[in-house]
Structure formats: structure tokens, C-alpha cells
Amino acid sequence: QLSALADILAGDSKLDLSSPKSSSYLAELSTLPLDAVLAEPANLSSTSSQLTNALTNLCTSSYPTFLSLHSTTSGLSSTLSSFSDTLDTLLDDIPELESAARSFSSDIASIQTSRRRAALVLEHSSKLQDILELPVLADACVRGGHFQEALDLASHAARLAARFPHVQAVQDVRAEADNSIRVLLGQLLAALRAPGKLPALFRAVSFLRRMRVLPERGLALAFLTGRLEALDAALAAAESEKRGQDAPDAWARYMKKYIDAWREGVHDLVTQYAAIFLERPPADLPAADLGALRALLPACTAQLLARLLSALRIALPRLPDAPALTALLTQLTYCATSFARLGLDFRGALPPLFGDAVRARVAGEFARAAEEFARTPRAGWAPAGAPRRDSRTGAAGALHVPPPALVVHPPVALFANALLAALNGLRLLAPAALLHDLARALDAALASAGRALLGVSRDEARGAATAFVRILVPFVRRALVEGVYGTQVDDVPPSEELQGVLEELEAWL
Questions:
Q1: Are 258 and 238 within 8 A, CB to CB?
Q2: Model pLDDT, residue 489
Q3: Beta strand ranges found along 27-136 (DSSP E)
Q4: DSSP of 347-372
């Protein structure tokens, strides 16, 4: 029925009734009652009139809007047409733009890489700054004496270098940190050469062990070498005492200071070496290396003792008098006794040195006295007064009182004084083994003096020769054998040379 109704209406008008709205209206119309259908034309006519009036009013009141809309629509159409032309041009230019974009992208690839690296560096700038400051911090720690922190920083730089072997900056940081560690190594080795006590030296050796730059034996050798250099410096300071060697006590002052410096330096060396390397060796040290460490100390102390004995051989003959020799022996005896607790008792090496020095000094004084006696002028042999009755008391009487009869003969008295001065110095230090050597030296001096008397006129020197043979010779031999050594003079007979000279003088008299 709807299609028939649509056909009827379509035949009478040019309306398009195929649209969905028309179909909906026709469907609604078919449901209306007849009176409503009959009233529908009037309603449609009324609605059409109302719409026409409304449209007319709208056109009358809103014509500017319609004119503007028309102008805008025309402009839009023109714009759309221009946009279409521009779009066509753009589409034509897109391939060229795409090619240019690819070329640009290729040109800025390196810049983008650099920017990405820069961005990465900026992101991790604090960490990079910490890494780059490692050498500066290590150097500051070394200069400030914070060796533990310097070693920790160097270890951290080494770990970073092993983790990033291809990063040149990290390798440079490690190289600079290693330079600071080399400076630290120099400071530690210098500390071994400088005067120092056990705590400072033990600290230096501990850091050297941590650095592992030397094996334990090499470290011990470096320690001994450094301490020997420190001892050499202390001994060199004693050389200042030898300035003005013409002074009588220059060598005595020099040896006193030399022995004090030697004693202190060697004692420190032995105790420090024992405490660092023998009492506290590393836990992983092999037994063979420990034996080598124990062998180094005796070798070093033997060398130091040889240096001391060599210095004594040079200095002892230059000491001015017997008290200086005795004082030096006392000082060395105390020194050797203190070293006995360390296994370095060298008291047995002292007697030969001092015996030679005493022998040379006393024999020299005897010989010089004889030479001075032989230089007596010809007029000096005359007696200075009347002869004394006790002129034969040389073999008896007190040993500490020279016979008064010698005063009458000045050359003999001066000779006796010179010999007694030598014997008085000998009493301070009289090695028992030198009795016979000194007796021979005294006999040689007396024989030389006797031969000098034989060369003088008998009339001028008869009194002096008598005092010499019968008083001086027995007295000074008793003074040496009995007064100094406490032995019977008969146990030490005179030498054949002296006996022959005395016999000649007795015959001459």
C-alpha cells in the first residue's frame, strides 16, 4: 500500500519520495484516520505558509549574513582551489624534500653522535669529575703524608683501567696516579735514609710491603742501605771535630763524637732491623727467605765493626796523650758491653789496637828522650853542684821518688824526667802483654843514651856517666818493671845491647 501511495503521489508531482524521510512520512500518513488525512493538506498548507513567512523574515532580517556567507563561500572555494594547486606542488616537491632530508640526516649523523656523547658526559659529569680528580687527590695525599689513602686511590684507578681498557682518559688517569705512587715510593725510600725512630721506619716498610715493588729480601737490603746512609751522615757530621787538627785534643774530640754516633746508629740499625724483619716477618714468607734475612744482619754489622776498627787504627796513633787513650778505651769498653746484649761484643778486638798504640806511643817517647839527651851540648855535661853521697841508690829506695843525686847532672835529670813522664802515662793504660816489648824499647833508649855518653870527653862526662850507669838505669828499669807492672826486675833482664853499653861505660869510667 505504501508503494502504491508513493506511486500515486509521484505521478501528480515531481517530488522525490524515495528518501528515508519521505518513506517515514508516508508510513505515518498511512496510519492516520481519514479525517486526519483529509485535514493533512490544510495542515501542510498552513505549515508551508508559516515556513515561507519565517524564511522571508529571516531573509529580510539576516540578508547581511547571507551575503557574507556567500562571499565567504566564494573565498573558500577560491582558497580551496589555491590550496589544491599548492598541495599538488607540494606533492611534486615531496620526493626532492625527502631526498634533501636524507642527505641532511646523513650530514648531521656525526654531530648527533657528538651531541649524544656530550649529553652522556653531562649526565655522568659528577662521576667523571670524581675519576678525573683521582690523580690530583692521590698527589695531595702523598704530599700530605696520607699514604694509605694514596694507595687506595691508585688501586681504584688500576681497577678502572682494567675495566675500561680502551678508554684513553681512564688510562691517562691511571698513568698520572702511578706517577704519584712513584713519588710516594721515593718518599718512603728517603724515609729509610733519614734519621728516624722505629715507628716511622716500620710504617715506611709496611707501605713498601703493600706496594709490592720489592721482594722481602730486596726490601731488607734497601732498609740496611738506607740506615747505612743515615749512619754515614751522622759520622760525617763528626768530621767537623777534626777541623784544626793542630789542636792537641782534635783527634780525641773527633773519636769521642765518632764513637757516640757509631754506637747510636748501629744500635738503632740492629734493633730496628730485628723488630721489622726478624720478629714480624710476613706470614707468607718462605723459610729460605727468612734465613737470608737473618744472614744479612751479621754481614752488615761485621762491615760496620770493620769500619770502626779501621777508624781506630788511624786515630789511636794521633791521640795526644795517655789520658785521651784511656778515656777512649773506657768509652769503647762501655760501648762493646752494651752491644754484648745484641750479640755484637767486640771487646776482644780492642786489646791489639790499643796495645799497638801504647807500644808506639811509649816507645816513641823513650826514643825522643834519648835523642834529646844525645843533643846535650858539650858544656852541658858539667855537674851543677857537689856530688851527693847517696849516688848508688838507683837499685833500691822508693819507686815513686827519683834519686836526688840525679839533680847534680842536669842532662841525666832531664832524661830521667822524660822517661818518668812516659812511665806515668803508661800507668793509666799498661797492657800486660807489652811488658817485654816496652822493656826492650826502654833498654834501646838507654843504650842509645849510653852510646851518646861514650862519645863525650871522659873528663867532662865522668860524673854524668856515673849517675847514668849506677843510678838512672837501675831506677828507670825498676820503675817500669816493678812500679808499673808489679813484677820483679830480675824477671826482666836487660837486653844484650844495653848490657854491652853499660859494660863499656863501666870500663870507660
A1: yes
A2: 82
A3: none
A4: GGGHHHHHHHHHHHHHHHHHHHHHHH
User: Mean pLDDT: which of 25-29, 30-34, 230-234 is highest?
Assistant: 230-234
Whether the Cβ atoms of residue 508 and residue 465 lie closer than 8 Å to each other: yes
**Burial (CB count <10 Å: 0-12, 13-18, 19+), residue 367:** middle
- Quick one: how far is CA 364 from the chain centroid? 51
Please give the helix or strand (H or E) that residue 467 lies within, else none. helix 458-467
Alpha carbon distance 34, 59 (integer Å): 37
Closest Cα to residue 365, out of 467, 433, 438? 438
Q: How far apart are CA 346 and CA 335, in angstroms?
A: 9
> How much of the chain, in percent, has pLDDT values that exceed 70?
91
The confidence score (pLDDT) of residue 13 equals 56
Structure confidence at residue 105 as a pLDDT band (50, 70, 90): confident
Locus of grid cell 501528480: 12
Stated pTM of the model:
0.67
**Would you say residue 130 has pLDDT above 60?**
yes
pLDDT of residue 392: 46
174 burial level (CB within 10 Å; 0-12, 13-18, 19+): buried
Cell of 33: 484516520
Radius of gyration of the chain (CA): 64
369 grid coordinates: 828522650
So what's the pLDDT on residue 305? 92
- Do residues 263 and 335 make contact, with C-beta atoms less than 8 angstroms apart? yes
Of 271, 251, 278, 345, which Cα lies nearest the Cα of 305? 345
DSSP string, 143-188: HHT-HHHHHHHHHHHHHHHHH-TT-HHHHHHHHHHHHHHHHHHHHH
User: Which residue type does 153 have?
Assistant: L
SS3 state at 274: helix
**N- to C-terminal Cα separation, the chain:** 203
DSSP-assigned letter for residue 124: T
How does pLDDT run across 388-412, given as a tens digit for each residue? Answer: 555 444 555 667 778 888 888 888 8
Q: What is the residue type of 147?
A: F
Cα distance between residue 3 and residue 26, in whole Å: 9
Please enumerate in sequence order all residues whose Cβ is within 8 A of that of 37, keeping only pairs 6 or more positions apart, or say none.
29
